[in-house]
Amino acid sequence: MKTKGLFITLEGVEGAGKSTLIDFVADLFIKAGHETVKTREPGGTKTGEQIRDILLDSNNIALTDNTELLLMFAARMQHIEQVIKPALIANKVVICDRFTDASYAYQGGGRGIDVARIKTLEEWVQGDLKPNLTLLFDLDVEMGLRRAGKRSEADRFEQEEKDFFERIRSCYLDRAKLESDRFRIVDAAQIYENVKEQIQKIMHDYL
Ligand code: TMP
């Protein structure tokens, strides 16, 4: 199946501001006349959102790390088939709040699951589908957790210790180095206006 659209993902530790900035990114494409789909993981479909509820529910303390990984990819499979691929085939711009880099960072870096196992799932679920561009919103973990803490009650992930998020941040940065053609790092510790300016500069080449 040939895809023609543009697939952009947003990644980062908690409190990096992705969920707000995704609107800004999408608006740039909409204003430039592109048909744009804004979505998120885990989630993005009815089934995916149900899986998200299981994954984020802080009462699910018995959920094992491997179950967590499989649920992430189950939601992703549904999302790819139902939303992402059809949109890309229709030449749309798909902007997704988190994707497989989050599985490497959280389940691999954070939980310590073998990277080879994640790669096997990635190849099975995605085939040759990969983001064209990934914006990594990077900031100090403590600052991110402070920001996230102000928002709402902590979900199952947000209840983890600082070390967990330090491992996630360093895994993201390692991936960005390894795949420097696909990744662009945004300094998310800056004030909102400044972060938007950085995004605008990066997007210039894609609009
Ligand atoms: P959000 O906070 O960006 O909405 O994402 C929900 C949580 O899910 C967040 O703590 C990161 C986590 N997550 C993973 O652990 N692995 C994944 O593959 C994805 C997509 C998200």
Mind explaining what this structure looks like?
The protein is α/β, with parallel strands linked by helices and 207 residues long. The protein has a single domain (6-203), classed as Rossmann fold. Helix content is 55%, strand content 14%. The chain has eight helices and five strands. The chain has helices at 18-31, 46-56, 65-89, 100-110, 115-126, 141-151, 162-178, 192-203, and strands at 6-12, 36-40, 93-97, 133-138, 183-187. Strands 2-3-1-4-5 form a five-stranded parallel beta sheet, with helices on both faces. It is globular. The mean pLDDT is 95. The structure holds thymidine-5'-phosphate (TMP).
Q: What is the CA–CA distance across the termini?
A: 24 Å
Query: Hetero groups bound?
Result: thymidine-5'-phosphate
Number of strands: 5
Class in CATH? Alpha Beta
| Overall SS class | alpha/beta
- Lateral strand order in the biggest sheet: 2-3-1-4-5
Name the CATH superfamily classification: P-loop containing nucleotide triphosphate hydrolases
Largest sheet: 5 strands, parallel
Number of helical regions: 8
Uncertain spans: none
Write the CATH fold name: Rossmann fold
Question: Would you list the SSEs in sequence order as H and E?
Answer: EHEHHEHHEHHEH
Outline, from the CA principal axes?
globular
Give the fraction of residues assigned to helices. 40-55%
Strand content: 5-15%
What is the number of independent domains?
Answer: 1
What's the rounded overall pLDDT mean? 95
The value of Rg in angstroms is 16 Å
